[in-house]
C-alpha cells in the first residue's frame, strides 16, 4: 500500500509543502498567541518533522513566540503554517493550510483557559485548560 501524502500551502502559494505518513487528529488551540496570530482559534495537526518537505522555504519567516517554541509563517501573505518545539522531532501543521480532502477530524481543545470571551465551545469534545495530560 502506498504511503499517504498530504499537501498544503500558504494563501499566496509562495510556500508549499508535503508531509508523508499519518497525521494526528486536529486539536484546536485557544491560547492568546494563537488567537492573536490567526485572528481566532487555531486548528493544527501534527507529524514527524522528518516527514515534512517544504518548497519555497526562503519565503518562510520565523518567530520564537516563547523560549521553547518557534512559529513559521509565509513572509509574503502572513499565513501561519507551522509550530515546533525548539529541538523537537515533530511539527504542528496548521490544518487550514492543508489541501482537501484531509481525512482529519477534531479531537480536542487546548488552552481553553485563555479562549476569547466572544464565543462558546459547544461541540462536546474534551477541553483542557492548558496542555492536555500526557
TrEMBL record:
Family matches, as Pfam families: GFA (PF04828)
All residue ranges annotated as the CENP-V/GFA domain in the record: 6-120
GO molecular function terms listed in the Swiss-Prot or TrEMBL record: carbon-sulfur lyase activity; metal ion binding
Domain of life according to the entry: Bacteria
Keyword field contains Metal-binding: yes
Keywords: Lyase, Metal-binding, Zinc
InterPro entries recorded: CENP-V/GFA (IPR006913), Mss4-like_sf (IPR011057)
Family statement: Belongs to the Gfa family.
UniProt protein name: CENP-V/GFA domain-containing protein
